[in-house]
């Protein structure tokens, strides 16, 4: 094996050092990520400049880049909280969040990479206990889930907003009551539904009775008006008209004029 020229060895060493220097001085930030720059000889975490965005970056080898995911993320949490009357309620919730991009340096400096466990989850638990404690199990089971979801979101956001965390939504996925309480609430709701149905039937029957009463009163008034208008003279005229109509029929008959009651004709011999 031939020996390398004396001039070639320093060049080879320099080339190797250059490659190592370049490999240690580059950082590639992936999609949906951002980097926080830590300057070893320049004051530590950089908080007065935007974080490093996606793509390729040249960084001094004695500095360090801490990469954070900055797209929206979801965290799940199962909690046991107490209702307003002291009963234990199991709450299954999740939160949509992401770090505050412009303040990523402050988040790393003050909270660290484990900010979800240190800040976000404890705040959600505290807000859930506070909110659920205002409601009864019946309210939580039937009609107040949307309300407690909104209130937990508002209370959590109010705290983590100052902690460089952007909270987008809190979702209450399930509320689990003790079995005996759940059964009692279901029985009560069923009884209330049956009572409403019974009241509806009563109201319907009452309206039908009122309708029939109004109809009967209307007919009675009409009959009174008709009776008042039927004088003896009108009745006699109507009787004569009816007799004349009968007389025109082809059946054989005998008409005795003036022999009936009140002088009305009598028709005899119809076949």
From TrEMBL:
Coiled coil: 188-215
Organism of provenance: Aquimarina atlantica
InterPro entries the record matches: Band_7 (IPR001107), Band_7/SPFH_dom_sf (IPR036013), Prohibitin (IPR000163)
Principal subcellular localization: membrane
UniProt keyword list: Coiled coil, Membrane, Transmembrane, Transmembrane helix
Subcellular location: Membrane
GO CC terms of this entry: membrane
Domain Band stretches: 24-189
Transmembrane segments: 7-23
Name by which UniProt lists this protein: Peptidase
Cited Pfam families: Band_7
Topology with respect to the bilayer: Single-pass membrane protein
């Amino acid at each position: 094996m031939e020996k390398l020229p004396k001039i070639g060895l320093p060049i080879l060493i320099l080339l190797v050092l250059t490659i190592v220097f370049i490999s240690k001085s580059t950082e590639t930030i992936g999609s949906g990520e951002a980097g926080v720059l830590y300057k070893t000889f320049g004051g530590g975490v950089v908080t007065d400049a935007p974080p490093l965005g996606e793509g390729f970056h040249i960084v001094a080898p004695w500095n360090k880049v801490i990469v954070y995911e900055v797209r929206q993320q979801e965290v799940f949490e199962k909690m046991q909280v107490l209702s307003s009357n002291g009963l234990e309620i199991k709450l299954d919730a999740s939160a949509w969040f992401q770090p505050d991009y412009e303040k990523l340096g402050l988040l790393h400096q003050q909270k660290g990479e484990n900010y979800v466990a240190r800040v976000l989850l404890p705040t959600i638990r505290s807000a859930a206990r506070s909110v659920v404690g205002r409601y009864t199990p019946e309210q939580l089971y039937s009609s107040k889930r949307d309300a407690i979801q909104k209130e937990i979101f508002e209370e959590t956001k109010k705290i983590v907003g100052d902690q460089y965390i952007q909270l987008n939504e809190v979702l209450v996925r399930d509320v689990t009551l003790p079995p005996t309480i759940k059964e009692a609430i279901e029985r009560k709701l069923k009884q209330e539904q049956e009572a409403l149905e019974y009241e509806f039937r009563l109201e319907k029957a009452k309206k039908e009775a009122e309708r029939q009463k109004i109809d009967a009163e209307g007919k009675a008034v009409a009959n009174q008006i008709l009776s008042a208008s039927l004088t003896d003279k009108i009745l006699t005229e109507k009787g004569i008209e009816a007799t004349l109509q009968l007389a025109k029929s082809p059946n054989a008959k005998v008409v005795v004029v003036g022999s009936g009651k009140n002088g009305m004709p009598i028709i005899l011999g119809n076949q």
